[in-house]
Amino acid sequence: MNARMKNPAEVLPDATKGIQNIYKAVHQGGVPQAVLELVHLRASQINGCSACVFGGVASAKKAGETDERLHAVAAWREAPFFTDAERAALALAEAATRIADGSGVPDDVWDEAADHFDEQQLSAIILMVALTNFFNRLNVTVQEPAGKTWS
Questions:
Q1: Mapping DSSP to helix (H, G, I), strand (E, B) and coil, where does residue 146 land?
Q2: What does the pLDDT average to over 84-90?
Q3: Which residues are CB-contacts of 70 (< 8 A; sequence separation ≥ 6)?
Protein backbone atom coordinates (compact mmCIF):
# COMPACT_ATOMS: atom_id res chain seq x y z
CA MET A 1 0.00 0.00 0.00
CA ASN A 2 1.23 3.49 -0.82
CA ALA A 3 0.54 6.47 1.37
CA ARG A 4 -2.09 8.90 0.13
CA MET A 5 0.23 11.79 0.96
CA LYS A 6 3.17 12.64 3.18
CA ASN A 7 2.46 12.48 6.87
CA PRO A 8 0.95 15.85 7.90
CA ALA A 9 3.59 16.16 10.63
CA GLU A 10 6.20 16.14 7.86
CA VAL A 11 4.29 18.58 5.66
CA LEU A 12 3.99 21.18 8.42
CA PRO A 13 7.45 21.45 10.03
CA ASP A 14 6.25 23.47 13.02
CA ALA A 15 4.05 20.52 13.98
CA THR A 16 7.12 18.29 14.09
CA LYS A 17 8.91 20.71 16.40
CA GLY A 18 6.01 20.73 18.86
CA ILE A 19 5.67 16.95 18.77
CA GLN A 20 9.39 16.52 19.40
CA ASN A 21 9.13 18.75 22.47
CA ILE A 22 6.30 16.63 23.86
CA TYR A 23 8.29 13.43 23.27
CA LYS A 24 11.25 15.00 25.05
CA ALA A 25 9.06 15.78 28.05
CA VAL A 26 7.58 12.26 28.04
CA HIS A 27 11.04 10.73 28.18
CA GLN A 28 11.94 12.96 31.12
CA GLY A 29 8.92 11.78 33.11
CA GLY A 30 10.68 8.99 34.95
CA VAL A 31 8.81 6.09 33.33
CA PRO A 32 10.89 3.09 32.31
CA GLN A 33 11.39 2.99 28.54
CA ALA A 34 9.87 -0.50 28.43
CA VAL A 35 6.58 0.80 29.84
CA LEU A 36 6.42 3.62 27.30
CA GLU A 37 7.12 1.16 24.48
CA LEU A 38 4.44 -1.26 25.73
CA VAL A 39 1.70 1.38 25.98
CA HIS A 40 2.63 2.72 22.54
CA LEU A 41 2.42 -0.75 21.05
CA ARG A 42 -0.88 -1.61 22.74
CA ALA A 43 -2.62 1.59 21.68
CA SER A 44 -1.36 1.11 18.12
CA GLN A 45 -2.66 -2.46 18.06
CA ILE A 46 -6.09 -1.30 19.22
CA ASN A 47 -6.19 1.40 16.53
CA GLY A 48 -4.97 -0.91 13.78
CA CYS A 49 -2.04 1.33 12.85
CA SER A 50 0.38 -0.98 11.06
CA ALA A 51 3.04 1.73 10.76
CA CYS A 52 3.05 2.35 14.53
CA VAL A 53 2.86 -1.36 15.40
CA PHE A 54 5.83 -2.03 13.12
CA GLY A 55 7.77 0.94 14.44
CA GLY A 56 6.76 0.20 18.03
CA VAL A 57 8.06 -3.35 17.88
CA ALA A 58 11.34 -2.18 16.36
CA SER A 59 11.71 0.57 18.96
CA ALA A 60 10.88 -1.78 21.83
CA LYS A 61 13.41 -4.35 20.63
CA LYS A 62 16.04 -1.63 20.34
CA ALA A 63 15.25 -0.74 23.98
CA GLY A 64 15.80 -4.37 25.01
CA GLU A 65 12.30 -5.85 24.87
CA THR A 66 12.07 -9.57 24.20
CA ASP A 67 10.11 -11.24 21.42
CA GLU A 68 8.26 -13.24 24.06
CA ARG A 69 6.84 -10.13 25.70
CA LEU A 70 6.19 -8.30 22.45
CA HIS A 71 4.22 -11.24 21.06
CA ALA A 72 2.07 -11.22 24.19
CA VAL A 73 1.18 -7.52 24.38
CA ALA A 74 -2.15 -8.05 22.61
CA ALA A 75 -3.05 -10.64 25.28
CA TRP A 76 -1.30 -9.02 28.24
CA ARG A 77 -4.08 -9.89 30.70
CA GLU A 78 -3.57 -13.61 30.15
CA ALA A 79 0.22 -13.56 29.65
CA PRO A 80 2.53 -14.09 32.62
CA PHE A 81 5.30 -11.82 31.32
CA PHE A 82 4.28 -8.41 32.69
CA THR A 83 4.75 -6.76 36.07
CA ASP A 84 1.84 -5.28 38.01
CA ALA A 85 3.05 -1.79 37.09
CA GLU A 86 3.21 -2.69 33.38
CA ARG A 87 -0.28 -4.19 33.59
CA ALA A 88 -1.58 -0.99 35.19
CA ALA A 89 -0.01 1.10 32.43
CA LEU A 90 -1.41 -1.17 29.73
CA ALA A 91 -4.90 -0.99 31.26
CA LEU A 92 -4.65 2.80 31.37
CA ALA A 93 -3.47 2.88 27.75
CA GLU A 94 -6.39 0.73 26.65
CA ALA A 95 -8.98 2.78 28.55
CA ALA A 96 -7.58 6.09 27.29
CA THR A 97 -7.47 4.75 23.72
CA ARG A 98 -11.02 3.38 23.83
CA ILE A 99 -12.71 6.51 25.17
CA ALA A 100 -15.12 6.45 22.23
CA ASP A 101 -16.62 3.31 23.76
CA GLY A 102 -18.22 5.62 26.29
CA SER A 103 -16.69 4.43 29.55
CA GLY A 104 -13.77 6.83 29.71
CA VAL A 105 -11.09 5.75 32.14
CA PRO A 106 -12.77 3.83 34.98
CA ASP A 107 -11.78 4.72 38.55
CA ASP A 108 -10.40 1.24 39.22
CA VAL A 109 -8.06 1.50 36.20
CA TRP A 110 -6.94 4.96 37.29
CA ASP A 111 -6.45 3.91 40.91
CA GLU A 112 -4.33 0.91 39.93
CA ALA A 113 -2.12 3.08 37.73
CA ALA A 114 -1.83 5.70 40.48
CA ASP A 115 -0.72 2.96 42.89
CA HIS A 116 2.32 2.30 40.67
CA PHE A 117 3.16 5.70 39.19
CA ASP A 118 3.45 9.19 40.63
CA GLU A 119 1.86 12.25 39.02
CA GLN A 120 4.89 13.00 36.83
CA GLN A 121 5.04 9.41 35.60
CA LEU A 122 1.29 9.28 35.00
CA SER A 123 1.63 12.49 32.99
CA ALA A 124 4.32 10.87 30.84
CA ILE A 125 2.21 7.75 30.26
CA ILE A 126 -0.90 9.77 29.41
CA LEU A 127 1.04 11.96 27.01
CA MET A 128 2.62 8.88 25.37
CA VAL A 129 -0.82 7.34 24.88
CA ALA A 130 -2.18 10.63 23.51
CA LEU A 131 0.74 11.02 21.09
CA THR A 132 0.36 7.42 19.99
CA ASN A 133 -3.34 7.91 19.33
CA PHE A 134 -2.51 11.15 17.49
CA PHE A 135 -0.02 9.39 15.21
CA ASN A 136 -2.28 6.37 14.78
CA ARG A 137 -4.98 8.65 13.44
CA LEU A 138 -2.61 10.48 11.11
CA ASN A 139 -1.10 7.25 9.79
CA VAL A 140 -4.40 5.44 9.29
CA THR A 141 -5.89 8.48 7.52
CA VAL A 142 -3.03 8.90 5.05
CA GLN A 143 -2.43 5.12 4.86
CA GLU A 144 1.17 5.33 6.07
CA PRO A 145 2.80 2.00 5.18
CA ALA A 146 4.49 -0.14 7.80
CA GLY A 147 8.25 0.01 7.60
CA LYS A 148 8.53 3.57 6.28
CA THR A 149 11.61 5.38 7.44
CA TRP A 150 11.24 9.03 8.32
CA SER A 151 13.34 11.50 6.40
A1: coil
A2: 98
A3: 41, 57, 60, 61
